[in-house]
Design a protein that fits this description.
Elements: H1 53-79, E1 81-90, E2 94-97, E3 105-110, E4 115-124, E5 135-138, E6 141-144, E7 155-164, E8 168-173, E9 178-181, E10 185-192, E11 195-198, E12 202-209, E13 212-217, E14 220-227, E15 230-235, E16 239-246, E17 249-253, E18 257-264, E19 267-271, E20 278-285, E21 288-290, E22 301-308, E23 311-313
Parallel strand pairs: 2-6, 2-8, 3-7, 3-9, 8-10, 9-11, 10-12, 11-13, 12-14, 13-15, 14-16, 15-17, 16-18, 17-19, 18-22, 19-23, 20-22, 21-23
Antiparallel strand pairs: 1-4, 4-7, 5-6
Length: 314
């Protein structure tokens, strides 16, 4: 009797290998050494959709073209920037600067008898087609419009107006600044604008935001701004009114009647030392200091009202 042969031990299974295939009908499959046991086996999910390489390439090229195109346009605009001064002379009693947008304006009164307007126009595009500032006189009123309205490419225009001292000035703008000196009167309305006025007897200014700086006003003064500081010096008017929603107010002078109304901001008034005033103050939150000479029976009345802010009258 032949003794039973011992069964050889099964080789160890590697966790990283696939399960053994079923035996072949022809007989058991010889066991081979697992030489790739140290190499991870990649599992491919054939159901996962991976973008095609041409699609990624096309997207990258499109992005590169967009960046290069924007840079090219900006470079072209800068390279093709031009500037020219346009000067015209008119005869008029009133200067009406209308719808100037973001253009800055300087008006200077002098002893001249005519009005000279210099417009410094800067634009991008063809050097042969500069925007033109056209002025028109009707009934003694010189109307000056914005030359940059309707232009396709960037455009700027700064105005300098030299006029007789008796000239009245009207002004409307979106965000441009205004400086007026030594003319008869100013009526202005701006959006986001800083306004500076010197030696103008009659001043009426309204802005949405921006500071207003006025000095040496002798007839009437009216300032209204939603957000901005107001500084008025040497005010000698019969009546002066300052209204602001948010901003500090400083007034120096001796007006016959002064009214200051602000929602949020400090108020400092420096009145004439040789005058007596009927001073009336009101504040919901803030300190009040009155050092000026007061007299309830005086015809000179100062009315100051603020909801949040300090009041100083001296």
């Amino acid at each position: 009797m032949t003794p039973a042969q011992p069964t050889p031990p099964a080789p160890p299974q590697d966790a990283a290998t696939w399960p053994a295939e079923p035996p072949s009908p022809a007989g058991p499959t010889p066991v081979t050494p697992n030489v790739a046991a140290a190499v991870p086996v990649a599992v491919v999910d054939h159901l996962r959709r991976v973008p095609e390489r041409p699609l990624w390439i096309a997207a990258g090229l499109a992005l590169l073209a967009l960046v290069a195109g924007g840079t090219g346009v900006a470079t072209w605009v800068n390279v093709t920037r031009h500037s020219v001064a346009q000067t015209s002379t008119y005869a008029a009693d009133v200067v009406d600067l209308r719808s100037l947008g973001s253009q800055d304006v300087t008006v200077i009164g002098s002893d001249r008898t005519d009005i000279i307007v210099t417009v410094q126009v800067t634009w991008s595009g063809s050097p042969d087609s500069p925007p033109v500032s056209a002025g028109q006189v009707t009934g003694g009123i010189l109307s000056l419009d914005n030359p940059c309205l309707g232009t396709r490419w960037p455009c700027w225009a700064d105005y300098r107006v030299e006029a007789p001292r008796a000239t009245a000035v009207r002004w409307t703008a979106g965000s441009g600044d205004l400086s007026v000196t030594s003319v008869a009167s100013l009526v202005g309305q701006g959006g986001s604008s800083d306004v500076t006025v010197r030696d103008v007897p009659k001043v009426e200014v309204t802005t949405s935001s921006g500071d207003v700086d006025v000095c040496r006003v002798s007839t009437s003064l009216s300032i209204r701004t939603s957000s901005g500081d107001v500084d008025a010096c040497e005010v000698r008017t019969e009546a002066a009114t300052v209204q602001t929603s948010s901003g500090d107010v400083r007034v120096d002078g001796a007006p016959a009647r002064l009214t200051v109304d602000t929602t949020s901001g400090d108020v400092v008034l420096t009145l004439g030392a040789d005058q007596r005033y009927d001073v009336r103050t009101s504040t919901a939150t803030g300190d009040v200091s009155v050092k000026a000479t007061t007299d309830r029976s005086s015809s000179r009345v100062v009315q100051v009202t603020t909801k949040t802010g300090d009041i100083t009258v001296r």
